[in-house]
Amino acid sequence: MLKVSDLKKSYGSHEVLKGINLNVATGETVVIMGPSGCGKSTLIRCINRLTEPDSGKIIYKGIEIDQLKEKELLELRKNMGFVFQNFNLIHRLTVLQNVMLGLVKWGWDREQAETRALKVLEQVELRDFVHARPADLSGGQMQRVAIARALAINPDLMLLDEPTASLDPILVGEVLKVMEELTVQKDKSLLIVTHEVAFARRVANRIVLMDQGVIVEEGSPQNIFENPQSWVGRRYKEMIEYH
Amino acid sequence: MLYLFRAKFRKDLIIHLLVVVLVGSALSMTAGYLADNYFGKTVSGLIGDYGEFDLLITVNREVRSSALSQIRDILRVKLPGSTVEQGVTVAGKTNFFVQLDQKYRTREYFMQVDNYFVNVTGLNGVTMMAEPRVTIRGIPAGLVEKMEQDMATIDGVKFTYPAGSTGIDLMLNNAKEFNHVSAEVDKILNKYRVLEVRFPIDNGPVDAVSLGDTLAQKLKKEYNLEYAENLTTNDMGDQQYLINTMLEMKKFLLQYATVISIPIPEDSEIVVHRDDYLLMPGPGRFDLQVGEEITPMDMKLQVIEVTDEEIKALIVEGNVTDIQSNEIYSFDEDKITAFLGTGAVLSPREDLKYAADELAKILPDLDRIFTNLYGMTDEAITAIEMYSDTMVEVEDVQQALQEGQAKVEEVRAKLTEVDLTKIQDFVGSLLSVVSTAEEITSKMDWAKQELLQIDNELGQFQGQVDVVKNEFGVSETYSKQLDNAVDMAKDLQNALQNNTTEILEKISGYNPILKNIAGWKQDLEKLQQMVASGDLLSEDTGAVTEVLDKLITGSSSTMEYLGKLDDEKMNEQIHGFKESLEKVQQSDVSAIIKELEYISDTLPGLRDEEVTRTIRLIENYMSGQIIPGEQILIMVPNNLNISKTKPFVMEAVGQSTISVFNMDAGVVQPNVRGEFLRIISEVRETITALVAVVLVMLVLLLDLTGVMSVIKELRKKKNGSLIWNLINSEYVVGILFGSISLEIIFSLTNGQVPYLDNHPGFWIGLVMGLIIALLTDRINPVNKNEYMAGEALGFNLTEILREIVIPAGKPGLLLILNRRNLDFK
């Protein structure tokens, strides 16, 4: 479904991505892990060109994303759900409106959009909060709204950029639960950036470890955490053993 | 920037720009209108609206009602169709604005229209205020006609008319022609120069006009001039009048200034120069000592003249009435340095006031004295008549006495044969006559005292009159009135003196008679007593004889004195005196008193320091002036270097003491009223501009900063070239919006900013837009998370701006306009 080849990105003289090659199959859940600053978030943002890559190929369902013009790119984004670390909700809108906004903009009938929005909010267990404003919600609830907003369009590919990183540890569970439920849906591919090792072990079909802008190791959770080949993998193994 | 043009949001921006321009223009114009209305109403009350009225008639406030009805009558009869409006009253003057009917706005009417109102009650002046008008002044009188002909042909000039002897007014077709016509007038004026030759005040030519003709011909020939026209006339210029008036004023003030004269002893070593300052003790200052500090109370003098004998000085600080003593000192900065001597104070102004006041006090008493004197003459006449009657009786008595004398002779021989009853009757009647004579002489004595007193007062009166007359010799205004008073007073004095002298002499003649009669009366009383008691018979004859002898002797001397009095002549003289008094009383003493009080009140109410200061001011002014004597004016072409012609002119007029000046042929006078209205108009334009600037700044701050912040983010995201970055920068957005919107608003509302003539809206908008673009992040930062959410949802720039950025931004016009685009309001 998604093929990334030799993807590079620099900020000034700092090379953040140094030729990333990555494949994601349909229905596959790929978890990207690695130390902070290794380029995980940049990679996931480059995939839908929220961050413009310097070079490399991004092919999604046979479409070369890196070659798309702006209008085509916007169309493409409608089929990719993106969940941000900081939720990125529109604060002036209610929970329901936040979820509906994309649908309405994409031409959905207002009633249909509302029905769909209510459905996904049900799915993330926020049906009772449809008229609340983001400011009235907890971090976990806000992130669930963000997930609902991404889910609303029923995307083939969901990109989740450290969705629990900004959350109080107590609230992390409710988000992980929702995310775990998503992985069950086999029609969707998920590319998740996270530090949640246990979650990764549970839900990932494949784990990709990154360090200093390159993929240092990838494989099944079992291989990565039991027989790590990279320094990063070993650190994760130690962490699991410690816990 | 190009992002915005590529996106649909350009439509929003264009609508926003149009709304900003329309709303901004409307608000700016409203503010300008309100300002214009406020100032305009105030100003139009004072000077009328521009071009609305043609004449300003100013009258005294007290008579404004009657003046208004008279003006209305004049307009109805002579200028039908014209209207008048009453303006404000300022400083006791009421303004009336007259709008002439269109048919009277012609050269012929404008030349004479002010004459129609000369008889309006309380008129202060008639001023032409027709607009639009260009006013030219300072044209030499001989050039006015030619200039008017030239200027009448200028495009945009409706008609011209001469204003006074040295001015021309040009009425224009419309106000827009003002600058063009002014420029054309300047061109005409600049074609000519006027060469002015000034002669010394006491050394002018006999015939300046013909000398001017000669000089013009010589100049034309010498300098090969296209023309040289003699403009000299025999009229005296305004400056000449002014200088002459100031000279007279200085002379007048010098007559009234207090002069302090300080004699210089022969062996004095004191050195005093003209203009040095000296000091006299002022109020509360006594016994000044050398070395003592001077105080503000001390009086300062300034030396005006120093001779070998004396120093003369004027008071420059203080007044003659402040002088405590006549000691004069020199001083240095703040200390007294030497005692110079005792000065003499000559203050004609104070002396005159004193004399006039004293005279005015005496005159009412004089009137009373005249009345008493007049009554007394009646009594004197009565007394004279009584005297005549008494004389008859006295003659009878004298005869009886002469008879009695014989009988007394007999008594002396034969006392017992005297008929005592007869003697008793005779003595009784004689005593009665003597008492009457005594009474008359007493009255005459009172009259003598009164007349002496009057004579004394008249003498004083005469002296003061003389003082006043002498002092007023300097003033033509007062002297005529005072001369009348003096003449009347002198006539009165002469009349009284001539008559009283003789009368007083006559009355004095009564004194011996009175004494004589008193002695005679005493003797008679003694005789009467002797007769009544019978002692006449019992006493020895020696004592009786003695009494009788004295009676006889007294009778003779009394008769002798009485005989000397010429009662008829005296009666005639007293009647003459009475007639004189009647004539004197016909003098209008009240009128004389009023004149004197007027003179006293109208003496210059100036302190000496003010008088001296005024004299100094006049001297300073005069010293900076060339006192104008005769003048010759020659019109020459502009290219003649007049300053270099002086030697030639000196030779041509045969005089080296002349001055040669280079004068304009006239100047376009600032139209004060027009200027005032222009300033008001500028105030309106500036207020309009300021409101527009504030509005555009608010729009930039509230509306555009959000958009500019997005542009900035987009620019930073793309690694474009410098030019690409520049074109797509937020600066271009700010500059373009600020300059275009403000320039359009300025154009629509005629907003102007002082000192910025060339497209001020464009430049101010440009600067504002640039500054706000530089600060856009700080003023209205875009919420990057929300923005990125929009991007992730596949929103284009327009959708992001409409749904996310603008609703989250500051409340402004764009927010209101954007509401129609929102899916979730």
Topology (elements, then pairings):
The complex is a heterodimer of chains A (243) and B (825).
Chain A: E1 2-11, E2 14-24, E3 29-33, H1 40-47, E4 55-60, E5 63-64, H2 70-77, E6 80-83, H3 95-105, H4 110-123, H5 139-151, E7 157-161, H6 169-184, E8 189-193, H7 197-203, E9 206-211, E10 214-219, H8 221-226, H9 231-242
Parallel strand pairs in A: 3-8, 3-9, 6-7, 7-8
Antiparallel strand pairs in A: 1-2, 1-4, 4-5, 9-10
Helix pairs in contact in A: 3-4, 3-5, 4-5, 5-6
Chain B: H1 2-6, H2 9-47, E1 55-60, H3 64-78, E2 83-90, E3 93-99, H4 107-112, E4 123-128, E5 133-137, H5 144-152, E6 157-162, E7 168-172, H6 178-191, E8 192-198, H7 208-222, E9 229-230, H8 238-256, E10 259-263, E11 277-280, E12 299-306, E13 310-317, E14 327-332, E15 335-342, E16 344-346, H9 348-413, H10 420-471, H11 476-508, H12 510-533, H13 535-538, H14 541-564, H15 567-585, H16 589-601, H17 608-623, E17 631-637, H18 646-653, E18 659-664, E19 667-669, H19 672-717, H20 722-727, H21 730-749, H22 760-774, H23 776-779, H24 784-792, H25 797-808, H26 813-818
Antiparallel strand pairs in B: 1-3, 1-4, 2-3, 5-7, 5-19, 6-7, 8-17, 8-18, 9-17, 10-13, 10-16, 11-12, 11-14, 12-13, 14-15
Outline the structure in words.
- With 243 residues, chain A is an alpha/beta fold.
- Chain A has one domain: P-loop containing nucleotide triphosphate hydrolases (Rossmann fold, 3-Layer(aba) Sandwich), CATH 3.40.50.300.
- Helix content of chain A is 39%, strand content 25%.
- Chain B has 4 domains: 180 residues, no CATH class; 139 residues, 2-Layer Sandwich (Alpha-Beta Plaits), CATH 3.30.70; 88 residues, Elongation Factor Tu (Ef-tu), domain 3 (Beta Barrel), CATH 2.40.30; 252 residues.
- Chain B is built from 26 helices and 19 strands.
- Chain B has a 7-stranded antiparallel beta sheet with strand order 15-14-11-12-13-10-16, with helices on one face. A 4-stranded antiparallel beta sheet of chain B has the order 2-3-1-4, with helices on both faces. A 4-stranded antiparallel beta sheet of chain B has the order 6-7-5-19.
- In chain B, a hairpin with a 2-residue loop joins strand 2 and strand 3.
- In chain B, helix 8 runs antiparallel to helix 17 and helix 9 packs antiparallel against helix 10.
- Chain B starts with a helix and ends in a 7-residue tail after the last helix.
- The chains are: A alpha/beta (243), B alpha+beta (825).
